[in-house]
Amino acid sequence: MTVRVPAKVNLQLSVGPPRDDGYHDLANVFHAVSLFDEVTASDDIAPGGAVSNGAAPGGAAVTVKVEGESAHLVPLDGGNLAVRAAHALAERAGRSPGARLTIRKAIPVAGGMAGGSADAAAALVACNELWGLGLSTQELMEIGAGLGSDVPFALLGGTAVGTGRGEKLTPVTAEGRFHWVFALADAGLSAGEVYAECDRLREATGERVGWPQASEPLMAALAAGDAHGLGKALVNDLQPAALLMCRPLVRTLAAGREHGALGALVSGSGPTCAFLAESEAHASGLASALDAAGVCRTAVTAHGPVPGATIVPA
Ligand code: ATP
User: Which residue, of 14, 101, 128, 210, has the fewest CB within 10 Å?
Assistant: First the structure.
């Protein structure tokens, strides 16, 4: 059972003051893009019916193997978000969680594109099928919300406004297709550390922070399929903190603007930078220009919006 799941970019990430529980209230406009991880879940049974790792069929073991983009940075133990998702689903269904998971990564690890959350969402869909549980997307989203704020959106896909910690989702109608370039960085950034730096910066500068709300110009640009309007309306409150923690990103963003990006911003908590292009051809030219300028590890193109976690036909 194989499930394909998209990365996200935040078209708007407005961050409220820290709450008592340590989280922040957000106005978060998620947009799913065509940069996909794949998660395969199979019964832990070797060919011929023998059990491969000593677990009984349907027994308590969840094993995981990771291939692809920065696979060596992904934990292979119970800290892997896909493994945690399989356990959470089994617990909800009142069954034991036997499965063998294989993750093929294309989403950068710790890149601000919610790759771990995407894998958790894919594992929920794959194990729901593998175990024949028949849970609805809504039920999977409830389980996902307990695993991480970005998991429900990876199930839903498209474009959506997230409020609360980002997990309360309202779908947004976006006209047409937007073309993107993502500049991947050498090392990751910890989302928790970027939020903490954002709080510190605001305290140091005395910035007053209002209640975060979805931006009207952004919503209007999405509804009209207006890439120029969208480029101007992109906003990320975490960007100043991410740029302080990773200075080379200043040059990366400037290079994208110099090559005609309609909008340029750090994706989520970074360090991936996102650039909105006029067309598919402009996106591929922009990606080549960023590669040639040496301002990122690699630049990849993608489009959005795309659907959330989807079963790949056998
Ligand atoms: P977000 O945008 O949601 O803040 P991110 O894209 O910056 O997240 P992830 O790729 O989700 O970051 O990885 C964050 C950390 O989660 C990694 O450093 C890694 O140790 C851990 N992790 C656990 N499971 C996974 C997984 N399946 N894929 C990637 N990282 C994982």
Answer: 210
Residues 246, 242: Cα–Cα separation, whole Å: 6
Tell me the C-alpha distance between 130 and 2, whole Å. 10
Q: What angle do the packed helices 115-130 and 137-147 form, to 10 degrees?
A: 140
Q: Quick one: the chain helix, strand, coil %, rounded to 5? A: 35, 30, 35
Q: How open is the CA angle 178-216-234, to the nearest 5 degrees?
A: 45
In degrees and rounded to multiples of 5, residue 204 shows phi and psi of -65, -35
Domains in the chain: boundaries: 2-171, 178-304
Nearest to 117 by CA among 41, 14, 32: 32
Distance (Å, rounded) from C-alpha 69 to C-alpha 156?
Answer: 24
- Residue 116, SS3? helix
Distance 270 CA to ligand 1 centre (A): 12
Choose, from 8, 37, 119, 237, the residue flagged as catalytic: 8
Q: What is the rounded average pLDDT of the residues 133-158?
A: 96
Average pLDDT over all residues of the chain: 93
Q: How far apart are CA 272 and CA 113, in angstroms?
A: 8
Q: What is the average pLDDT across 139-167?
A: 94
At the top level of CATH, the class of 2-171 is: alpha beta
Residue 200's nearest CA partner among 44, 13, 17 is 17
Q: Is 77 annotated in the active site?
A: no
pTM of the predicted protein model: 0.93
Dist. CA 90 → ligand 1 center (Å): 22
Predicted confidence (pLDDT) per residue in 75-129, tens digit? 999 999 999 999 999 999 999 999 999 999 999 998 999 999 999 999 999 999 9
The CATH code of domain 178-304 reads 3.30.70.890
Got the DSSP string for 135-193? Answer: --HHHHHHHHHHH-TTHHHHHHBSEEEEETTTTEEEE----S-EEEEEEE-SS---HHH
SS3 (DSSP) at 22? coil
